[in-house]
What does this fold into?
Amino acid sequence: MTKLEQPLVSVIIPAFNSSDYVLEAIASAHAQTYAPLEVIIIDDGSADDTAEKLRDLIETGRIRYQFQTNQGLGAARNTGIKLARGKYLQFLDADDLIAPTKIEKQVQRLENSAQASVCGSDFRCFEHANPSGLFGGDSFKGAFPLRSVAQLFEFETVIHRWLFPASLVRDAGGFETNMTATEDWLLLWKLAAGDACFEYVDEPLALYRKHGLAMTADFERLAVGHLLAIDEVERHQRAQQLSLYSKRELNALRESYHYELGLFYVRQNRSRRAWSHLLKALVLAPNRRQVKLLLLATIPAWGADAMSRAGSANERLWRWRAQLRKTFVG
It folds into this structure.
């Protein structure tokens, strides 16, 4: 395949108050060994100097720039999808980086694929402004664990390690705009559930910047996002008449997140929220005694004695059950 025959690739970079990093992301796109490329920046309502830093690139035509009022990451990417002219789409967040040979290697794999496919690569993480201290990687080797409910959310999407045929993304409806932290995961899940093939380049061609968010805030955001994603998976299964997971399996997954969120809020002394999630967990799995204990522990009137009272109640419960077994079983 000669240079003239190569398909156009659209690199879509959403930016929101990203002036500290966006030029690095653009530079990593422009450093690709592949051509032809177009780089599309969707400025999602930035209030910093993002536009000013991009001015020269806009005026020289090295990027296509679109400003919109703030609508969130999924909506910004969807705007980029509408503007993209390429056969393939490379999503790249404004604070992340891609290796120079990434797109070239992945286009070659996709052009030689006999079936509709997406192509992933391995990745590495780095913290803040230090891309030399790399860690992490893909333990699944790009194979989405579609049939394993227990592993579904263990799969790290890292959206910029993928190269997508634009037609597949558009047919899947692009990114959901009502999700919390899981819109990337959900797009990959929909493609896997729709029988798209997954190609893989076993090299770390994508660098994912970690900003050191507080673990508490990150856990809360991700757990809520996973619950929303489970709801969307269930709706999509029903709409497409799929039978990948039973209601029981999805409810077990829901229960685990409601339980963990309840425990999280108990530790933060946020009783009302703890009650809300623990009650939902109890409805989904009424035999979980841990849920009952935590419900007791969140009764504000008991104060600091709540956990000890719950523990005593649990001891009495197990003695009572042992007595029943002795009476009726012998």
Summary: Residues 324-330 have pLDDT under 50 and may be disordered. The radius of gyration is 24 Å.
